[in-house]
Amino acid sequence: MTDHPNARLLIGPAELQKLDRVQVIDTRPAERFAAGRIPGAIHLELWGLSLNDTDPAPMRAFLWTISHYLTTRGIDPKPPVAVYEDSETGIRAARAFWFLEYFGHPDVRVLDGGFQAWKGAGLPIETGEAKTAPKGTWPDDGSTGRREDTLAGWRDVFAGAGAPGHRHDLAILDTRSEQEYRGTLKRASRAGAIPNAIHVEWRDNLDATGRFKSAADLRRLYEAKGITPDRDVISYCQGGYRAAHGYLALRLLGYPRVRNYVASWAEWGNREELPVEQVKGQR
Q1: How far apart are CA 10 and CA 89, in angstroms?
Q2: Residues 28, 157, 269, 202: is their CA dihedral positive or negative?
Q3: How big is the CA angle at 55 (ends 52 and 57), to the nearest 5 degrees?
Q4: Cα distances (Å, whole numbers) of residue 89 to 36, 111, 151, 247, 262
Q5: N-term to C-term CA, the chain
Q6: Does the pTM exceed 0.85?
Q7: 170-174 and 151-152 strand pairing
Q8: Which pLDDT score is estimated for 161?
Q9: Dihedral, 75, 78, 79, 85 alpha carbons, nearest 10
Q10: CA 11 to CA 228: how far, in whole Å?
Q11: Mean pLDDT on 119-126
Q12: Phi, psi of 19 (to 5 degrees)
């Protein structure tokens, strides 16, 4: 379907319809799910579940909550999973994708173009009351094999963000809007950016139809900014949603070391002891 090195992470509407034993996950708001969805889809609303402290105890509690929620929604770690949202390949689907990869699901895909692509292909839509999914078999104890190498906390970011002797092989990817990055839009107690962060807004990953750009276009976008496959990359935004989209884009390109700073600016911008950069001019 695509020319991306990890093209298997995306799926098109026709391919999804033909896939056997797939769990389809709808990450849209509940009212949109109720109004019409892919037949058999499970509703997974993660929007209100966020973290603003990546110290060990709150991080453990947050991750347990997410894994337990996956179980209650009927998510299973064995069959293939396809996640989608509404009009584009957006941040809700990307964040669900990242969670499932972090928790060790071996076969997670994102519907490229979202629900609009499904409708545009003339495929069936289910309405009315959705069937209650049986409780899943997702283990809460982490025995699915968590991918700790995909997760970052503030200490990991600080190592590449201006600490004495900071790692120059670590790239901090800022996926927020230009206004947030420049500090003209304040969404925490402080405005600005993580020091040494490289700005690539998440929407730049997509073409005019809401699908991911070609591998060549994505590669040019990131490599021109110095985000190259030989570097460790930590992606951040406000709360880990747009950061997950950057994570997915780089996973599509086959980058081997990419992490999501799950608390992002909601934590960094509010911790007075962490450095903040006021970005001026072009970088």
Answers
A1: 10
A2: negative
A3: 100
A4: 18, 7, 21, 13, 19
A5: 35
A6: yes
A7: unpaired
A8: 75
A9: 40
A10: 25
A11: 96
A12: -75, 130
